[in-house]
Amino acid sequence: MNRCNRSSSRSTPKLADGSPLVTPSIHSLLDVRGVNKRFGGLQALSDVGLSIQAGQIYGLIGPNGAGKTTFFNVITGLYPPDSGSFTLDGRPYSPRSVHQVTDAGIARTFQNIRLFGSMTALENVMVGRHIRSRSSLMQTVLATQAFKASEAAIRNKARALLAYVGVEHLADKVARTLSYGDQRRLEIARALATEPKLLALDEPAAGMNPSEKATLRRLLEQIRNDGISILLIEHDVKLVMGLCDQITALDRGREIVCGSPEQVRAHPEFIQAYLGKAHLEPTA
Ligand SMILES: Nc1ncnc2c1ncn2[C@@H]1O[C@H](COP(=O)(O)OP(=O)(O)OP(=O)(O)O)[C@@H](O)[C@H]1O
């Protein structure tokens, strides 16, 4: 059962008279319940769920082998679940294929970066943008005025997205020559090009140095402030605790705790999963 407290832990900014700066639009964006997934004899997920409110950064954490990537892959259409129900933006949602997931409004990045290595940074983002292009095959073949205008718009939007994630100066560089941190940001730009409601990031800070992590954190906060919700798997607990509104911690395929960073940090099973039993035993 998903025991998560569904309200956001962050308070709405207030004006001097105490009224809210913006009218909070709290509604459930993604609701996932009762997901089970078995690989042969291994129960990788047991009755796992989560509820992401619009405007939240939601963290999925847990030790190695906890089931985070499996759950992510189920939500993003890579693995069919054995059971589970899904609602996105109030509508039933079937994550049956990557295309269906993108059309529904979820974009993702991968633990092992999956860029088109021999294409430029700009071309990589244009590929993501083409998914939203309205050009028909005939327009493409005939290279009509409408098609040319659409291509120019896609190029401009892709450039704007590179600027948004801070790598516009690398637009014409071949993707595989970019630094690790820049490749991760490029992957985020490509995912944003599909205009998602929810951006799902699998270990976005992996391999980053502290300064790259600080830049990433600012970027993710910016994306959230611009109205796109985020689900992230991340091993850097400090980053997750500082960034996320709500967190689910998994261990051995089941939810051990779900709540605000403070609630998760204080939970005995979370402490045990991360620090081992010794930490819980009272000192003499
Ligand atoms: N395709 C698969 N076939 C068989 N077993 C799998 C498959 N994918 C994952 N598993 C197993 O399911 C369990 C959960 O793995 P998963 O990768 O989801 O964990 P994780 O929490 O993402 O771990 P990590 O932090 O190391 O990436 C592990 O025991 C793993 O070996």
How would you explain this protein's 3D organization?
- The structure is a single chain.
- By secondary structure, the protein is of the alpha/beta class.
- The protein folds into two domains: 194 residues, Rossmann fold, CATH 3.40.50.300; 81 residues, no CATH class.
- It is built from ten helices and ten strands.
- The strands form two sheets. Strands 6-7-8-3-9-10 form a six-stranded mixed sheet, with helices on both faces. A four-stranded antiparallel sheet has the order 2-1-4-5, covered by helices on one side.
- Helix 3 packs across helix 5.
- The structure holds adenosine-5'-triphosphate (ATP).
- Adenosine-5'-triphosphate binds next to strand 2 and helix 1.
Features:
globular, alpha/beta, 10 strands, six-stranded mixed beta sheet, Rossmann fold, binds adenosine-5'-triphosphate, 284 residues
Layout of helices and strands:
Blueprint (H helix, E strand, L loop, with lengths): L27 E12 L2 E12 L3 E5 L6 H8 L7 E6 L2 E2 L5 H7 L1 E3 L12 H10 L6 H6 L2 H21 L14 H13 L5 E5 L7 H16 L3 E5 L3 H7 L2 E6 L2 E6 L1 H5 L2 H8 L9
Parallel strand pairs: 3-8, 3-9, 6-7, 7-8
Antiparallel strand pairs: 1-2, 1-4, 4-5, 9-10
Helix pairs in contact: 3-5, 3-6, 5-6
The site of adenosine-5'-triphosphate has 11 residues, from strand 2 and helix 1.
